[in-house]
């Protein structure tokens, strides 16, 4: 474009945002008002289901909790003190567990295959927990990382490569802002966080390091140590992450960026561990929960009853997704790098269920009702592309008749299908609202799946 007024005309076209013209990338300011306005990348809401992996030096004692060091040394809880006195020599320190974190059976390809079989669409690995040990060779964690000590391997890089080569999962990293016993953090805490030696020399450099090195599409922050986000310079880091990082277009973040930020700021809300509000929220949220009721890390002292049965996991998935959330289901590998058989079984069971009912989970949106008002244990989702309402029910009625109180059926138009079963089902409307559906008479072997089933309803209001 040339001639008088050409610059003004181009400016007008840019202002109008005409097709084919380059659009300016939004620049986010290091303020919560600006950062919270960033649209959440669509892939995260569509994914619905991810796997959390808590792995670290705490996997060596594998007793009680991944908070082993804190409970043993700081709170001096009796079971932990007795465990150490009975099994380790006097003077044995937590740091002595580092060389015992060996990972000799860690096969990242096998892990990736299990993750793929679970039906998950993303995975979040603990790159560093509150103990400060990094699963990569961080130059900011000298001699307290998986390359210098223990496995002598970059565990983050190996899993990232296998996940990306063998699956379609999005790869994410958990990172703890604080470290329980780091002298620099303890000094800052003593100074009421008016000094910032720890975040500037340790925590923030680590965050920049893992983003540039591994390009995770999820940064799952945790552990603020009761320090405010201004101490952590969280808004400064997030502004860089959203504006200039190599994952600026696809990365998602949670809400744990300093005292007071949880359930208030960030890309999606977690609000608390095992958060399951049972209702629709105005902002995207995630239910991070554990298969082992008592711990995020692996526990040798866990009993079979401590592991949630598959029926409970299917219920949590259906309930969470119906209310607009994602489910992040945690497993804890062993110190030698194995995913215990009970965790693998649960993940493969969820994957088997999703193989039949995935259309009621992936890419869905909340419907006008989240659960049924007549029959307990029925959760609704909506598939926009096909205009289908999905009714996920967890109990197969002995009568073979299922009553739904919410859908408004249209005689001659509404169709009802059982996911995994070919024939359409018969139904009767109950006045202006509600319907009764005749389920097929099937033997257990003929059932399309176990633990929960989906009715696909078309042309209902």
From TrEMBL:
Q: Where is this site: May be important for catalysis?
A: 288
- The residues covered by the Glycoside hydrolase family 29 N-terminal domain are 23-359
Q: Which residues form the Alpha-L-fucosidase C-terminal domain?
A: 370-458
Reactions catalysed according to its record: a neolactoside IV(2)-alpha-Fuc-nLc4Cer(d18:1(4E)) + H2O = a neolactoside nLc4Cer(d18:1(4E)) + L-fucose; a neolactoside IV(2)-alpha-Fuc-nLc4Cer(d18:0) + H2O = a neolactoside nLc4Cer(d18:0) + L-fucose; an alpha-L-fucoside + H2O = L-fucose + an alcohol
For this UniProt record, give its keywords in alphabetical order, as a comma-separated list. Answer: Glycoprotein, Glycosidase, Hydrolase, Signal
GO MF terms, alphabetically ordered: alpha-L-fucosidase activity
One Pfam family assigned to this protein is Fucosidase_C
* Position of the signal peptide: 1-24
Q: What class of enzyme is it?
A: hydrolase
**What EC number(s) has UniProt assigned to this enzyme?**
3.2.1.51
Q: Which processes are annotated in GO (biological process)?
A: fucose metabolic process; glycoside catabolic process
Q: Does the keyword Hydrolase apply?
A: yes
An annotated GO cellular component of this protein is:
lysosome
The record ties this protein, via Gene3D superfamilies, to:
Glycosidases, Golgi alpha-mannosidase II
Q: How does it assemble?
A: Homotetramer.
* Family of the protein in this entry: Belongs to the glycosyl hydrolase 29 family.
Report the function annotation for this chain.
Alpha-L-fucosidase is responsible for hydrolyzing the alpha-1,6-linked fucose joined to the reducing-end N-acetylglucosamine of the carbohydrate moieties of glycoproteins.
Q: What is this protein called?
A: Alpha-L-fucosidase
């Amino acid at each position: 474009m040339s001639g008088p007024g050409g610059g003004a005309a181009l400016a007008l076209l840019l202002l109008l945002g005409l097709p084919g013209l380059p659009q300016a990338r939004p620049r986010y300011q290091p303020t919560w008002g600006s950062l919270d306005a960033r649209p959440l990348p669509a892939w995260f809401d569509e994914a619905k289901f991810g796997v959390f992996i808590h792995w670290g030096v705490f996997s060596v004692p594998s007793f009680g909790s991944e908070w082993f060091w804190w409970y043993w040394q700081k709170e001096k809880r009796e079971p932990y003190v007795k465990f150490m006195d009975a099994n380790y020599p006097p003077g044995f320190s937590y740091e002595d567990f580092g060389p015992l974190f060996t990972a000799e059976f860690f096969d990242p390809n096998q892990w990736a295959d299990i993750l793929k079989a679970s039906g998950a669409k993303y995975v979040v690995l603990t790159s560093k927990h509150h103990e400060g040990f990094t699963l990569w060779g961080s130059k900011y964690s000298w001699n307290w990382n998986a390359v210098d000590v223990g496995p002598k391997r970059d565990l983050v890089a190996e899993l990232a490569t296998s996940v990306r080569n063998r699956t379609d999962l999005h790869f994410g990293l958990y990172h703890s802002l604080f470290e329980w016993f780091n002298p620099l953090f303890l000094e800052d805490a003593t100074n009421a966080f008016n000094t910032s030696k720890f975040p500037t020399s340790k925590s923030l450099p680590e965050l920049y390091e893992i983003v540039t090195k591994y390009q995770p599409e999820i940064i799952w922050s945790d552990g603020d140590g009761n320090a405010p986000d201004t101490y952590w310079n969280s808004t400064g880091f997030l502004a860089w992450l959203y504006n200039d990082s190599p994952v600026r277009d696809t990365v998602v973040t949670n809400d744990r960026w300093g005292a007071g930020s949880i359930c208030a700021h960030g890309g999606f809300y977690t609000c608390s561990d095992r958060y399951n509000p049972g209702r629709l929220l105005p902002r995207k949220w995630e239910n991070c929960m554990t298969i082992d009721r008592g711990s995020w890390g692996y526990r040798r002292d866990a009993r079979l009853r401590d592991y949630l049965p598959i029926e409970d996991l299917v219920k949590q998935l259906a309930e969470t997704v119906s209310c607009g959330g994602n489910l992040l289901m945690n497993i804890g590998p062993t110190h030698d790098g194995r995913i215990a058989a009970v965790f693998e079984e649960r993940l493969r069971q969820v994957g088997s269920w999703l193989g039949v009912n995935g259309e009621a989970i992936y890419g869905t949106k909340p419907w006008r009702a989240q659960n049924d008002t007549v029959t307990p244990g029925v959760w609704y989702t909506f598939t926009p592309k096909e205009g289908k309402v999905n009714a996920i029910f967890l109990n197969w009625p002995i009568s073979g008749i299922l009553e739904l109180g919410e859908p408004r059926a249209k005689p001659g138009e509404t169709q009802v299908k059982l996911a995994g079963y070919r024939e359409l089902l018969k139904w009767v409307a109950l006045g202006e609202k509600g319907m009764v559906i005749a389920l097929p008479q099937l033997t257990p072997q003929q059932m399309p799946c176990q633990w929960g089933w989906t009715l696909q309803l078309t042309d209902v209001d």
